[in-house]
Specification:
With 108 residues, the protein is an all-alpha fold. Helix content is 70%, strand content 0%. The chain has three helices and no strands. Helix 2 runs antiparallel to helix 3. The protein is rod-shaped and about 95 Å long.
Length: 108
């Protein structure tokens, strides 16, 4: 996600060639500084990758918990209307909920 917004990669920095001028910078200092920058970039990419993975796991957990909440609310309503002994919209919702569990692999 964020990699598309970052211009340079660690490899781009590593492979960057500077023109040498008579009054240029000391090459050793430039190389050391670029090595530090490369290390930072690698850390940034690693951190971003881990955060994206964690975000995806949390979003999946949220979806699962929302589905469980809907199922429990449906079960409560069904329990309230079960005494009437007639088929209601809640019975249909319960059946749909069971079908969703099978379709999405959340079979209990």
């Amino acid at each position: 996600m964020y990699q598309n917004k970052v211009t340079l990669t660690p490899q781009d920095i590593l492979e960057k060639e500077f023109k040498i001028d008579t009054r240029g910078y000391r090459l050793k200092e430039v190389d050391q500084f670029l090595d530090t920058i490369i290390g930072d970039y690698e850390q940034f990419f690693s951190i971003i990758k881990n955060l994206e993975k964690e975000k995806e796991e949390l979003l999946n957990e949220i979806m699962y918990l929302k589905q469980e909440l809907r199922n429990q609310e449906t079960n409560m309503e069904i329990a309230k209307t079960q005494d009437k002994g007639e088929m209601t919209n809640l019975d249909i919702l319960r059946r749909l909920s069971q079908i969703e569990k099978v379709v999405y692999g959340k079979e209990e």
